[in-house]
Design a protein that fits this description.
- The protein is about 30% helix and about 15% strand.
- With about 675 residues, the chain is an alpha/beta fold.
- It folds into three domains: about 350 residues, TIM Barrel, CATH 3.20.20; about 140 residues, NAD(P)-binding Rossmann-like Domain (Rossmann fold, 3-Layer(aba) Sandwich); about 150 residues, FAD/NAD(P)-binding domain (3-Layer(bba) Sandwich).
- Strands 3-4-5-8-9-10-11-12 form an eight-stranded parallel β-barrel, surrounded by seven helices. The protein has a five-stranded parallel beta sheet with strand order 15-14-13-16-27, with helices on both faces.
Amino acid sequence: MAQYPHLFSPLDLGFTTLKNRSIMGSMHTGLEEQPNGMDRLAAFYAERAAAGVALIVTGGVAPNADGAGFEGSAVLDRAEQVAEHQKVTSAVHQAGGKIALQILHTGRYAYHNHSVAPSPINAPISPFTPHELSVAQIEQTIADFANTAKLAQAAGYDGVEIMGSEGYLINQFLVNRTNQRSDDWGGTIENRQRLAIAITQAVRAAVGQHFIVIFRISLLDLVQDGGTLSEAIALAQALEVAGVTLLNTGIGWHEARIPTIATMVPRGAFSWVTRALKAHVKVPLIAVNRINTPEIAEHILANGDADLVSMARPLLADPLFMAKAKAGQSAQINTCIACNQACLDHVFEGKTASCLVNPRACRETELNIRPAAQAKTIAVVGAGPAGLSCALTAAQAGHHVTLFEAGSHLGGQFGLAQQIPAKAEFRETLRYFEVMLVQNNVDIRLNTRVSAAQLAGRYDEVVVATGVQPRQFDLAGADHPMVVPYPDLIAGRVAMGRKIAIVGAGGIGVDVADLLLNSADTIAAYLQDWGIDPQLQAQGGLLVPDGRVPERELWLLQRKKGKPGAGPGRTTGWIHRQRLARKHVHLWGGVQYLHIDDAGLHLIHDGVEKCIPCDQIVICAGQESVNSLYADLQALGQAVHLIGGAQLAAELDAKRAIEQGFRLGISFDEVRESAL
């Protein structure tokens, strides 16, 4: 019997069969708008299809210019565009997969001045006030959805997904929050649901019966004046009559102030919501959000929560996810850690998406590991993210790699980060490296410090990835017993205090605060912490968040002005800020440190001299590169390369470190110079 029998069971849709229960969920990559982007998308999707994903759903493509997310973003509304899409569908079909085009009208989320919506109400995440759709424009929009579906069918897609959740146009029509119309398209719930049903009917009529039509329905809006479960059930039943093949269950609007996909959200946190709909419809349901291992996927399916599971970022992280799971090699899966730093953050910054743990993602035509023409002996010094990435990649290319690490464990700063409750997923990345280094015959030498003299002349190439060390805090009284460097606190070498001042509010300072606040680590605790109704009775699914005062009193401090606590990440910074404020953390910016004594930390804040009466001061005041070995090796004439934090000790950046290590690892056939 297969290790994951439910995940790998086929699903008969009547006119076609999905070979297993996996769907690659929709995710915009930024390739859609680039020159030769469809060629790159074809390679991206084909690699995942070849590994066994049953059905891929593309990133959102608008049915008309008004529905586009931004000026120049992907639209499919003309026959002459079909040929470019055929590159993608042909590649996926040749790889043995199926693919559906997501039709996405962004409505008031559009980032341009001709956005449209049911009512002219600004979205909190867009500066543009939308124009209210006239009845004629609504009817044209319905026709545009049908037209795009017909063009998708002509392009060779196996189906379409109608995007009706996450706060986009169709979702905006469904709730009073954004639909304040008094005509036949607003007011009563029946009127507000008309657009979703009419679009589905028009799409089905345009494509016929033997074509997959998915509707992504919002089951949990997580916004004030949002929908209810009973309304979603009524809509789902109407959509079933209208001809949908599958229902994909969306969770949370983009403007919702509750995290739904970030790493602090427990795995499989929302499959219970999908299960709540299951008894009310006959069409198969798709569960979504934070499903990142075959074990979680199998549990959801075996438990009867859903009929299929949708994974987007996990297949960005490892294109071979399904093949490895089927072969019983789940330990070799490069697990998505839900950090968002190279995927969603990139897309919202107008960059091409990639993946922190897999720099090849969306660069399949550019970055590849090829067998070395000449195997070299390579020493990598330092087993943090940069060193691990370089050592593994070089070994996969066929080089003979020795990895030296002064400590007793792999991971460096990444190893520390995994101790933070909200970053427990980082353990998966270290597990992946540990397994793959052994499999690729890397000689791992822990508890081993090496000098330039021990390395020079013994290896063809040496890579210095010795990372960083905490910067010293230069202040009178910094040697006081209450002062603790952040590595000692995170690693558990010192006990936590009760009143704690955190000096430095960058990513590490925020992590320390999270550790001290004891983040929720179960689904029940997460729902309570963020105020999500587990009974699905409250409008929008919202309750009052847990407002209990934590057992520790914290001050998060920074020298620069402004409110501290953002941490890195455009799509996750707000989560940290909101949680810190809700947990009553004192967020002080623009402080001037004076001295430390038995009374606490003396400083100037808001122009007033104050003393924080703390019993512990945690220093998170930045890092310094550890790279003296690099200069010593250069002096001895050794071919040497400097990467990761050892090269640049700015705000710790695992994304940069892993990519740097990967790029160096595939380049040893080419490099001849001592500088990278």
